[in-house]
């Protein structure tokens, strides 16, 4: 594209505005991103994405999580292609469904069984249905602002939902044990589930590890009420611990909801559960025309195999640490303080004294201009495809971005002296 020539991205946005409500739905709308971010993409490979105008970026979103092994991982794609040649959407599942369920049961510590869907919202919704079928109760305790999907019971934007859709949500603050206790006292007789993410990862706020005492209290209260502890692993799955993100804490969920990374970019979700909930999982009616898709399940088996073989979590930890340390050094040398939070595998960088995200927005726009695709408010994602050299290339872009923030907003030290 030469200067003055209209970009393909702009032309597509204009066409989309006419035929797609709002031009795009949900949080992937480019209007929510810094200036210069593309809406439309042409391809992805490893840890790189290419937009429709041919600009290549070193990517730190992994398509908002799914591509945990990198885009188009050759082994996953070969497994998917072999199955694609045989058929994807058939009258029923392929043998891959059984194979994948067996692998999940072997890998996920609490899992005695697995059942499959397509999206994270399907999985959290099915998990809640199982909890309600098992208990005959209605209430679900969730953390305020925790994202569990876009169905009427959980979408963060109430337009198009009724008060009744959300009537049985009981909101608490993540890690607030007293708030948890008092919510529990109010509803324990009608409590079906406590649904929680493994750590706090809300949009635009620092990520927070779970307080082990909070997690233990959730387990104890679920046991006391006979309610289900549901762990929403949609975002964290395969990134923190392959056996489940609360495995290191020694706390066993009754149900876990998975999606995003489990088939490395192929559409797949799963609920895993314990034997005691098998009967309830059998009694609910839940299905979808594409839920048995054989290609995604073949991809899921390959993804798990590679994750185990390659030491995926250790790799994410290693490259994540390098990124975090590099950013911390740059932040100090440019005099631009940042708050980095969350597991290093899922980095989030927020700027001090940045209530409207102006610094974060400028930082990301500048990093993008130098070839790195970051996010100013949502946690980012690393993949097996990110090498140490890729991290260093990204750090070259962020160094320029820090310089731009310092030039526009001043160095923290200089500001204090003023
Ligand atoms: N739960 C969590 C924790 C998520 O991060 C998401 C998606 N960002 C969902 C549920 C919903 O998943 P999906 O968008 O695939 O429906």
Verbal overview:
- The chain has 418 residues and is an alpha/beta fold.
- Helix content is 39%, strand content 14%.
- It has helices spanning 8-19, 74-86, 95-107, 120-135, 177-187, 212-225, 278-283, 294-309, 312-334, 358-369, 388-409, 412-417, and strands spanning 41-45, 48-51, 56-59, 113-117, 139-143, 169-172, 191-196, 228-232, 255-258, 269-273, 338-341, 348-351, 372-373.
- The strands form 3 sheets. The protein has a 7-stranded mixed β-sheet with strand order 4-10-9-8-7-5-6, with helices on both faces. Strands 1-2-3-13 form a 4-stranded mixed β-sheet. Strands 11-12 form a two-stranded antiparallel sheet.
- The N and C termini lie far apart (44 Å).
- The model has no long low-confidence stretch (mean pLDDT 96).
- Bound molecules: 4'-deoxy-4'-aminopyridoxal-5'-phosphate.
Task: Note the topology.
Layout: H1 8-19, E1 41-45, E2 48-51, E3 56-59, H2 74-86, H3 95-107, E4 113-117, H4 120-135, E5 139-143, E6 169-172, H5 177-187, E7 191-196, H6 212-225, E8 228-232, E9 255-258, E10 269-273, H7 278-283, H8 294-309, H9 312-334, E11 338-341, E12 348-351, H10 358-369, E13 372-373, H11 388-409, H12 412-417
Parallel strand pairs: 3-13, 5-6, 5-7, 7-8, 8-9
Antiparallel strand pairs: 1-2, 2-3, 4-10, 9-10, 11-12
Helix pairs in contact: 2-8, 3-8, 5-6, 9-11, 10-11
The structure holds 4'-deoxy-4'-aminopyridoxal-5'-phosphate.
4'-deoxy-4'-aminopyridoxal-5'-phosphate binds near residues 147, 148 and 232.
């Amino acid at each position: 594209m030469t200067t003055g020539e209209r970009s393909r991205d702009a032309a597509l946005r204009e066409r989309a505005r006419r035929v797609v409500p709002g031009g795009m739905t949900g949080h992937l709308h480019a209007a929510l991103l810094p200036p210069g971010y593309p809406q439309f993409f042409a391809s992805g490979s490893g840890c790189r994405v290419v937009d429709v105008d041919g600009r290549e970026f070193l990517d730190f979103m992994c398509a908002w999580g799914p591509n945990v092994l990198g885009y188009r991982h050759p082994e996953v794609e070969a497994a998917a292609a072999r199955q694609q040649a045989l058929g994807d959407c058939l009258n029923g599942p392929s043998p891959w469904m059984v194979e994948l369920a067996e692998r999940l049961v072997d890998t996920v510590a609490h899992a005695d069984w697995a059942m499959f869907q397509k999206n994270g919202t399907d999985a959290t919704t099915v998990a809640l249905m199982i909890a309600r079928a098992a208990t005959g109760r209605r209430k679900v305790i969730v953390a305020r602002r925790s994202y569990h999907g876009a169905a009427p019971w959980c979408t963060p934007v109430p337009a198009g939902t009724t008060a009744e859709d959300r009537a049985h949500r009981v909101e608490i603050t993540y890690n607030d044990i007293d708030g948890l206790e008092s919510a529990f006292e109010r509803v324990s007789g009608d409590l079906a589930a406590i649904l929680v993410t493994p750590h706090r990862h809300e949009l635009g706020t620092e990520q927070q590890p779970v307080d082990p005492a909070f997690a233990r209290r959730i387990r104890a209260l679920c046991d006391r009420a006979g309610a289900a502890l549901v762990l929403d692993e949609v975002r964290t799955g395969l990134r923190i611990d392959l056996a489940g993100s609360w495995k290191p804490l020694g706390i066993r969920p009754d149900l876990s909801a998975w999606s995003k990374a489990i088939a490395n970019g192929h559409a797949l979700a799963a609920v895993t559960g314990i034997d005691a909930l098998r009967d309830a999982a059998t009694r609910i009616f839940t299905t979808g025309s594409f839920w048995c898709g054989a290609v995604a399940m073949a991809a899921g088996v390959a993804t798990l195999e590679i994750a185990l073989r390659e030491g995926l979590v250790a790799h994410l930890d290693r490259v994540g640490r390098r990124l975090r340390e590099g950013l911390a050094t740059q932040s100090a040398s440019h005099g631009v303080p940042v708050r980095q939070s969350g597991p290093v595998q899922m980095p989030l960088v927020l700027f001090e004294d940045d209530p409207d995200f102006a610094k974060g927005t400028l930082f990301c726009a500048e990093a993008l201009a130098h070839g790195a695709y970051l996010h100013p408010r949502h946690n980012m994602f690393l993949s097996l495809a990110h090498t140490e050299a890729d991290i260093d290339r990204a750090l070259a872009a962020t160094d320029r971005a820090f310089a731009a923030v310092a030039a526009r907003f001043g160095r923290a030290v200089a500001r204090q002296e003023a």
